[in-house]
Design a protein that fits this description.
heterodimer, A: about 250 residues, alpha/beta, 9-stranded mixed sheet, two-stranded antiparallel ribbon, 6 helices, about 25% helix, globular, B: about 325 residues, 7-stranded parallel sheet, elongated, binds flavin-adenine dinucleotide, binds adenosine monophosphate
């Protein structure tokens, strides 16, 4: 089983977001960067498929700055065989990134092309479906369960109030949701082995974006709560406030 | 500005609430520049009947693709149909709901048309004839304001944010055929979760519980509060209780769960970790019930009660019932 996994370097979810003085980017000082959490499920799925088949490969790929090499190394440390860094400026526009990925992936052999369902910085939920459309491949998003028999596959994807069961054939694009598997943690052996595995790096030109970021702002602050009281005795006053002041009951 | 197309999602033959929200919003923006809004409805036999009501929210033309083979969501068929309509009408913008289906579909359309997409938009307006949108990023810790360069501007709208408005329009139903092509994936079944409850993203009132409830069994008190609040209320959960196996992942609110914007959100026994806040800080009114007066949840809540949830929630359910009964 051959898989390609697209991954992204993102600020850790604990990050306190501060807007840079320019007003259109994040203040990167003091921010810790990690592998996008949903991409961990995508990597794990690729590793397990290769292990079960007893043959195959796992290639990890990213579009990003030189700093993304570190993210690729952490994916290799988990067990990926090789990595490709498509060096370019960051873009908030999913289509721009999708074009660069599709260009590189076209012509490479694979059974599964895996993504996280969402990058936790731009929260776009776009790149997997866009790459699939550009490569004219079957695509199932937000997958929590995947079974493969030969070249046929069935996936369960999360929808409001339940799951959709989807059938398709390989090669295909999958975007991973939490629950798909339990991602492994890196171990020392993997980290040492990672140093010897290939990391290809090349500059790519991104197409022009159809979106212009005008400004980034902090969400409007919410004033601290009015403590209505303590214990069950405060309930009557709370209900009164919800009815008469907030008018939500 | 040219006309706007709204992808009006249906489920099991009925229009989704967000389809009305999107049509109302599309109509409002189109009206600013004298343009009109069209709606596209795709679904199984009988869906045209549901589609007709979009005229109340401003749809001037309602395109309906109806057929047994369209009863389940088919992204490829939807992409081809949207692309065909755009080919005929050269839309200024195409609006999708930011629902499970809309978020799956919109990027496919964007790639097909070669146009940028803004996901989960919470504000939309025109400036000098160009569409400007605002959307949460970094799990709602920041808002990005974006201007579209060129058309069509592709946008998915966050459910429960935009109002449903009465804007009567002509709304003639027009059948539209799905262009022939390959269906690369096939939805064979929809499994409803055990409690066929309202999804936490669509509910008007969310009662969310955290580790402070102390056990899965204690959820009965939250269920009773939900029931007291009526049909528009549902349960939510923190990640701690989902990880503990007390609640299903579908109920999780937060960065790795769902982002909700109900009118009323109860955070019961939830500390208010930054990743939880990411999922609910845009609720209109937040009530926190927590034993710890210093819990960070009180920093974002509107109203708080300090104390033991297991004592407070049953009383709350009782008084909500009484208040709602008195109101009639
Ligand atoms: C990458 C990442 C993603 C995450 N995503 C999410 C997410 O999507 N959603 C999410 O919720 N979390 C998420 N988390 C986890 C988050 O950091 C917190 O651990 C979690 O939200 C805590 O859940 P809790 O508030 O239920 O539990 P706790 O933090 O343990 O809080 C329990 C609260 O209950 C109160 N309490 C105790 N007993 C009582 C009582 N009898 N009556 C009233 N109050 C009582 C306590 O004072 C306390 O405030 C994520 C974490 C990471 C690292
Ligand atoms: N710059 C990037 N390089 C490689 N993969 C990416 C990049 N951005 C997003 N992805 C992939 O697409 C998924 C969804 O991202 P997004 O559409 O940005 O929310 C991520 O989980 C990654 O798997």
């Amino acid at each position: 089983m051959q898989s390609i996994v697209c991954v992204k370097r993102v600020p850790d979810s604990e990050t306190r977001v501060r807007i840079a003085p320019s007003g259109d980017s994040l203040d990167a000082s003091g921010v810790k960067y990690v592998l996008n959490p949903y991409d961990e499920y995508a990597i794990e799925e690729a590793l397990q498929r290769k292990e079960q088949a007893g043959e195959g490969s796992v290639t990890v790929m990213t579009v990003g700055s030189e700093k993304s090499a570190e993210t690729l190394r952490s994916a290799i440390a988990l067990g990926a065989d090789e990595a490709v860094l498509l060096q370019a400026e960051e873009s908030n526009d999913g289509l721009v990134v999708a074009h660069a990925l599709a260009e590189e992936i076209r012509g490479r052999p694979f059974d599964l092309l895996l993504f996280g369902k969402q990058a936790i910085d731009d929260d776009n939920m776009q790149v997997p479906q866009m790459v699939a459309e550009l490569l004219e491949l079957p695509c199932v998003t937000v997958v929590v369960d995947l079974s493969i028999e030969g070249s046929r596959a069935t996936a369960r994807r999360e929808v409001e109030g339940g799951h959709e069961v989807v059938e398709f054939s390989l090669p295909a694009v999958i975007s991973a949701q939490k629950g798909l598997n339990t991602p492994r943690r890196p171990n020392l052996k993997g980290i040492m082995a990672a140093k010897k595995k290939p990391l290809e790096q090349k500059a790519v030109d991104l197409p022009a974006s159809g979106l212009e970021l005008v400004a980034l702002s902090e969400p409007p602050p919410r004033p601290a709560a009015r403590i209505v009281g303590e214990g069950p005795d405060a309930v009557s006053e709370l209900v009164r406030l919800l009815q008469q002041e907030a008018k939500v009951l | 500005m040219a006309d706007i197309l709204v992808f009006a999602e249906t489920r099991a033959g009925a229009l989704r609430g967000v389809a009305r929200e999107a049509t109302s919003t599309g109509s409002r923006i189109a009206a600013e520049s004298g343009a009109g809004v069209h709606a596209l409805v795709i679904g199984g036999p009988g869906v045209a009947q549901a589609a007709a009501s979009l005229a109340e929210h401003g749809a001037e033309r309602i395109f309906v693709a109806e057929g047994a083979e369209l009863a389940q969501y088919s992204p490829d068929a939807a992409v081809r149909t949207v692309a065909k309509l755009h080919g005929q009408h050269d839309y200024a913008a195409i609006l999708f709901p930011a629902s499970a289906q809309g978020k799956d579909l919109a990027p496919r359309v964007a790639a097909r048309l070669g146009r940028a997409l803004a996901t989960e938009v919470t504000a939309i307006s025109t400036e000098n004839g160009e569409l400007v949108v605002e959307r949460p990023m970094y799990a709602g810790k920041a808002y990005g304001r974006f201007r579209f360069k060129g058309s069509p501007a592709l946008v998915s709208l966050r459910p429960n944010v935009f109002p449903v408005e009465q804007r009567p329009a002509a709304g003639a139903l027009e059948p539209v055929s799905v262009p022939a092509g390959e269906e690369r994936i096939c939805v064979t079944e929809i499994e409803a979760s055990e409690r066929a409850a309202l999804d936490v993203r669509e509910a008007d009132v969310v009662v969310a519980g955290g580790r402070g409830l102390q056990s899965a069994e204690n959820w009965s008190v939250l269920e009773d509060l939900v029931e007291s609040l009526g049909d528009e209320a549902t349960l939510g959960a923190s990640r701690a209780v989902v990880d503990a196996g007390w609640r299903p992942h579908g109920e999780q609110v937060g960065q790795t769960g769902k982002v909700v914007s109900p009118s009323l959100y109860f955070a019961v026994g939830i500390s208010g970790a930054i990743q939880h806040l990411a999922g609910m800080r845009t609720a209109k009114v937040i009530v926190a019930i927590n034993r710890d007066r210093e819990a960070p949840i009180f920093n974002v809540a509107d109203y708080g009660i300090v104390g033991d949830a297991l004592e407070i929630v049953p009383r709350l359910a009782e008084e909500v019932r009484a208040a709602r009964a008195a109101r009639g």
